[in-house]
């Protein structure tokens, strides 16, 4: 009796949770389905959910209309490049704060965090002006540098919380054996910290990929990543829903998949270790 | 025990990041403060002159700014209430003993990974379009008149889109917090015959209070900066122009460097009020 009741309750809760999950996920599913429709089917009333003429022509069209490959290339270069360079600054900094802390380490961490709070819009004018003078508008170097700086505090923080979990004794043992500092970091610390470094990179790449203030305002054509390509669909001519959907699927698929893998680290990274 | 040598090395290694971040903060900020005291228009760059607090007075007495400030606060507050309230409910549901929790989790978190320009355009066109959108079809099928979202309720439409993007974040963080609730405490409450409502208010809510605060503060930082969603849906307008968008307009449409800079400083001050509390919250955790 009691068991039956618990089972019934569990099935009911499961149905409710799946329904809520489905509703939240639905816009993405709808976009995915629409990307395989003809424009006529995309606008059909009543909507066609599964029974329509499936076609992949939209995906071909995206490349022809908006040079998908260029923007995808920019997205990859910017989000991966900016954060790989960022790591070169962040790993030594995180090593220092985790294994050679001083009285001021905590203040330093807090201060780094506070630089992340500066709103992009607040300093937009200054950055725009600097970029204009330095001919960095619509340049991969320029916007790449911005993305790196925007993420650096998060990257240092996340690495710091991971490094803290590595026992300092192991590093000291290496030191006793006469390993130099660079060897200690590269051969002892880095291999142990690989999972932490990987999750940090994953989160940083996701954030850069979706960053849409600097990329919309400081890039135009040559350096424009996918955020910008999609924005160009906001003033459409004619029927374009299927095309928009195909472009959107192409723009979010890589990061959605990466994101699903990294969701557990995400909580830690996005709350700066405050919720684990 | 850190030796003198490691200490020196530590300082050297942390220096590049600190110097970079310091420049990244101080250079634009100093420039912005400087610009904000100038009458400086890019169309007449030669006539720039010092006008003290003139831009601030203009910006603060400008009805467009007051409107933008109101819109910013409406947007931030509505999304916070909807995403945190909804997030608690979703997290509570996911924390129940359900089948396939991982699948539900994957579905719930997905919108967080969708870039802002994509979510805004998909919602605006395929869901909210008053003629061929899915919502219009649902409304018609149950005998209601479809809502013309962006004509009649542009702010509500933007709020819904942004909420959809942030609900997953709130749900995921709060679920993580819920899962750390002690099983024994749950069982003890059950054995004592605690009512579900009391259980929620006296045990669950205090337990996740800290996580809720963190979610609220982090979301606020991002929500003060909402830009792309407005740019690609309404492109401004009286009802949805927020402070970031107003600054963007001043800078690009009016070429008003001084005005945009003054607006920027106002935005920095707003964000800092929130940051002040957030940084302290996280700092406390660092000691624990």
Describe this structure in words.
- The complex is a heterodimer of chains A (276) and B (288).
- By secondary structure, chain A is mainly alpha-helical.
- Chain A has a domain at 67-225 and 252-270: MetI-like (MetI-like fold).
- Chain A contains 13 helices and no strands.
- In chain A, α4 packs parallel to α7 and α4 packs across α9 (181-210).
- The model of chain A has no long low-confidence stretch (mean pLDDT 88).
- Chain B is mostly helical and 288 residues long.
- Chain B has a single domain, classed as MetI-like fold (Orthogonal Bundle).
- Helices cover 76% and strands 1% of the residues of chain B.
- A two-stranded antiparallel sheet of chain B has the order 1-2.
- Chain B is flat, with a radius of gyration of 24 Å.
- The chains are: A mainly alpha (276), B mainly alpha (288).
- The interface between A and B is large, with 97 and 106 residues.
Radius of gyration of chain A: 23 Å
Helicity range of the residues of chain B?
Answer: over 70%
Q: Give the helix/strand class of chain B.
A: mainly alpha
Terminal residue distance of chain B = 21 Å
Order of helices and strands of chain B: HEEHHHHHHHHHHHHH
What's the CATH architecture of the domain at 67-225 and 252-270 in chain A?
A: Orthogonal Bundle
At CATH's second level, what is the architecture of chain B?
Orthogonal Bundle
The CATH superfamily of chain B is known as: MetI-like
Please name the two chains that share the biggest interface, counting residues whose Cβ lies under 8 Å from a Cβ on the partner chain: A-B, 97 and 106 residues
Taking all residues together, what is the mean pLDDT of chain A? 88
Oligomeric assembly? heterodimer
The biggest sheet of chain A amounts to: none
């Amino acid at each position: 009796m009691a068991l039956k009741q618990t089972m019934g309750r569990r099935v009911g809760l499961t149905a409710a949770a799946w329904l809520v999950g489905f509703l939240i996920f639905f816009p993405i599913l709808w976009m995915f389905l629409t990307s395989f429709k003809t424009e006529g089917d995309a606008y059909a009333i009543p909507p066609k959910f599964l029974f329509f003429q499936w076609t992949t022509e939209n995906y071909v069209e995206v490349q022809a209309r908006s040079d998908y490959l260029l923007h995808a290339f920019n997205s990859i270069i910017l989000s991966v490049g900016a954060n790989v360079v960022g790591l070169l600054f962040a790993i030594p900094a995180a090593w220092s704060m985790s294994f050679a802390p001083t009285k001021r380490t905590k203040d330093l961490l807090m201060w780094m965090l506070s630089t992340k709070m500066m709103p992009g819009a607040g300093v937009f004018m200054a950055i725009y002006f600097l970029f204009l003078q330095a001919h960095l508008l619509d340049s991969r170097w320029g916007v790449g540098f911005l993305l790196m700086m925007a993420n650096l505090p998060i990257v240092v923080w996340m690495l710091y919380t991971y490094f803290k979990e590595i026992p300092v004794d192991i590093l000291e043992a290496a030191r006793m054996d006469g390993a130099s500092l660079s060897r200690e970091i590269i051969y002892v610390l880095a291999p142990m910290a690989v999972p932490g470094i990987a999750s940090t990179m994953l989160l940083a790449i996701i954030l850069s990929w979706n960053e849409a203030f600097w990329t919309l305002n400081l890039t135009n054509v040559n350096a424009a990543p996918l955020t910008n390509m999609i924005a160009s669909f906001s003033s459409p001519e004619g029927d374009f829903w299927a095309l928009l959907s195909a472009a959107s699927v192409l723009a979010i698929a890589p990061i959605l998949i990466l994101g699903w893998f990294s969701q557990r680290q995400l909580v830690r990274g996005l709350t700066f270790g405050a919720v684990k | 025990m850190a030796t003198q040598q490691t200490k020196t090395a530590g300082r050297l290694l942390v220096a590049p990041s600190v110097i970079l971040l310091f420049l990244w903060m101080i250079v634009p900020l100093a420039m912005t403060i400087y610009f904000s005291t100038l009458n400086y228009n890019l169309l007449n760059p030669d006539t720039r002159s010092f006008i003290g607090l003139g831009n601030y007075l203009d910006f603060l007495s400008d009805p467009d700014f007051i409107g933008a400030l109101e819109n910013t606060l409406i947007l931030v507050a509505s999304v916070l209430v909807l995403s945190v309230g909804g997030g608690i409910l979703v997290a509570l549901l996911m924390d129940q003993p359900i089948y396939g929790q991982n699948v539900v989790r994957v579905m719930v978190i997905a919108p967080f990974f969708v870039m802002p320009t994509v979510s805004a355009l998909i919602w605006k066109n395929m869901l909210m379009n008053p003629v061929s959108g899915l919502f219009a079809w649902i409304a018609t099928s149950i005998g209601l008149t479809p809502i013309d979202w962006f004509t009649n309720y542009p702010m509500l439409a933007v709020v819904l889109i942004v909420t959809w993007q942030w609900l997953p974040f709130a749900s995921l963080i709060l679920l993580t917090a819920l899962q750390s609730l002690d099983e024994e405490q749950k069982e003890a409450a059950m054995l004592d015959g605690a009512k579900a409502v009391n259980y929620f208010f006296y045990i669950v809510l205090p337990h996740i209070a800290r996580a809720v605060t963190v979610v609220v503060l982090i979301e606020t930082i991002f929500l003060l900066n909402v830009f792309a969603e407005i740019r690609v849906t309404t492109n401004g307008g009286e009802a949805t122009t927020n402070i970031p968008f107003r600054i963007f307009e001043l800078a690009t449409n009016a070429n008003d460097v001084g005005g945009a800079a003054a607006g920027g400083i106002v935005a920095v001050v707003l964000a800092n009020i929130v940051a002040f509390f957030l940084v302290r919250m996280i700092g406390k955790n660092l000691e624990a």
